[in-house]
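Before the break, one more example. Copy the sequence into your notebook; we will annotate it together after we see the structure.
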Amino acid sequence: MKHGPIALIDEAMPVFVIATKGPNYEKVVSNIQEVKARKGKIIAVVTSGDKDVKGMADHVIEIPETDESLVPLIAVVPLQLLSYHVAVMRGCNVDQPRNLAKSVTVE
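Here is what the structure looks like once it is written out:
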């Protein structure tokens, strides 16, 4: 955030954040505060019951509390579903994405 991406944030910029309870939680909250100071829109994936980030975020997606090693697997599902639905709303063909490599390397 510090050396570039933060310069892009304004009131029209949505910022997706995975702010689940864990060892980096305080750093993520600090980054959320930086984004809010620049009037960015926060869409946060949080651990169920998190009131701190809920108070700062514009939109919240809650996931259940689980073992720290499983959080990435659980957090990515709502983000994939969100990207799918945004693509459909934009009229993109989600069954045939563009610009995929169509070559096979044979040795």
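The longest helix spans residues 71-89. Strands lie at 14-19, 41-47, 59-63. Try to locate both features in your own notes.
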